[in-house]
């Protein structure tokens, strides 16, 4: 039995990231997937990048899977700097290592045994089982609006805050549409929270993990 954890949309909030990581069990064959948008908006973009890169180095890329988000694309393509704040600087004095790292991030990850796609924004669902070839780079990291409904695989994504998807401005938890989509961007800039989702690879069930325990994720419409 193993578990796959996923978090997304950290946006430079290192304390919120640390709180989320405290909920992740990386023992055995467990994995952690970062689903993009590690930088900008918050005050600690470099600290977040350093933390993720350290985890990747410590556990290896088969256990720590790091995906690209649209904010990483912005930096990798030279459209934006890593930080928005004049008082935040890279301790090494060069952004080159971070930019190179971002340029080589995966755009999606598939856990075949559970029929689950992890991605920042989404895939071209109109392409059906040819989505890997039919989805362009823009869609993987910037698909908008959020798509719901039935797809032949599960999709775990961030990018769009769950308060927008749910229509509830006070909702910052994991949004499940009851079909195939799990959205995990809790809008950390407002909530201070980075939701942690866990996939049990044996049961193929998804759980919300918190400091008070974990519970099976049910459709949003059944909860509220």
Describe this entry's structure for a reader.
The protein starts with a strand and ends with a helix. Strand 9 (196-200) and strand 10 form a beta hairpin. The strands form two sheets. Strands 3-2-1-9-10-11 form a six-stranded mixed β-sheet, with helices on one face. The protein has nine helices and eleven strands. With 224 residues, the chain is an alpha/beta fold. It has one domain: Purple Acid Phosphatase, chain A, domain 2 (4-Layer Sandwich). Helix content is 27%, strand content 20%.
Q: SSE layout and pairings?
A:
Elements (H helix, E strand, L loop, with lengths): L2 E5 L6 H8 L9 E4 L10 H15 L4 E3 L3 H7 L19 H8 L4 E4 L4 E4 L11 H4 L2 H6 L11 E4 L4 H5 L8 E2 L4 E3 L4 H4 L4 E5 L4 E6 L2 E4 L3 H4 L1
Parallel strand pairs: 1-2, 2-3, 5-6, 6-8
Antiparallel strand pairs: 1-9, 4-5, 7-8, 9-10, 10-11
Question: What is the structure about, briefly put?
Answer:
With 224 residues, this protein is an alpha/beta fold. The protein is built from 9 helices and 11 strands.
């Amino acid at each position: 039995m193993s578990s796959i954890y996923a978090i997304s949309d950290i946006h430079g909030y290192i304390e919120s990231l640390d709180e989320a990581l405290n909920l992740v069990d990386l023992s055995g064959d467990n994995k952690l997937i970062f689903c993009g948008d590690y930088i900008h908006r918050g005050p600690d973009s470099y600290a977040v990048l350093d933390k993720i890169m350290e985890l990747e180095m410590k556990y290896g890329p088969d256990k720590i899977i790091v995906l690209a988000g649209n904010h990483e694309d912005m930096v990798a393509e030279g459209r934006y700097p890593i930080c928005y704040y004049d008082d935040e600087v890279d301790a090494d004095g060069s952004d080159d290592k971070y930019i190179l790292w971002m340029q080589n991030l995966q755009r999606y990850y598939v856990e075949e045994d559970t029929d689950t796609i992890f991605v920042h924004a989404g895939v071209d669902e109109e392409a059906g089982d040819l989505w890997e070839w039919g989805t362009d780079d823009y869609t993987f990291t910037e698909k908008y609006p959020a798509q719901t409904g039935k797809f032949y695989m599960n999709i775990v994504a961030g990018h769009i805050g769950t308060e927008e998807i749910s229509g509830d401005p006070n909702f910052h938890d994991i949004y499940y549409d009851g079909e195939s989509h799990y959205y995990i961007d809790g809008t950390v800039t407002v909530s201070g929270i980075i939701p942690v989702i866990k996939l049990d690879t044996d049961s193929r069930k998804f759980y919300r993990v918190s400091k008070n325990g974990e519970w099976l994720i049910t459709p949003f419409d059944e909860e509220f």
